[in-house]
Amino acid sequence: MREDTFIVIGIIVLALSIPSFLSAIRDGRAPRVPAIMFMIGGVLIAMAIMNRPGGYQIEDIFTAFRTVFGRLKVMLTA
């Protein structure tokens, strides 16, 4: 289950880095923070793929989101 958490957080961090990167480029700033976010997300995804036997298929990623958010919901309602 740890791998599922890594891949979900990694995908979310990667998704959040894209608007920040585009904003930095548009404003003429160096995209330092988005680059760091992109690296962190990439490392988390790589760790998840390397630690899970057989890797991930597309269906597995959707299942990972469901299980991680399901566990989060249970933790928040308890």
Q: How many strands appear in the DSSP assignment?
A: 0
Name the structural class: mainly alpha
Whole-number mean pLDDT: 94
Task: Supply the number of helical segments.
Answer: 3
Low-confidence stretches: none
Amino- and carboxy-terminal Cα gap? 20 Å
Gyration radius (Cα, Å) is: 15 Å
Major sheet description: none
Helix content: over 70%
The H/E string reads HHH
Report the portion of residues in β strands.
under 5%
Q: What is the approximate shape?
A: globular
Keywords: Membrane, Transmembrane, Transmembrane helix
Transmembrane segments: 6-25, 32-50
How does the SSE layout of this entry go?
Blueprint (H helix, E strand, L loop, with lengths): L1 H26 L4 H20 L6 H20 L1
Helix pairs in contact: 1-2, 1-3
Keywords: Membrane, Transmembrane, Transmembrane helix
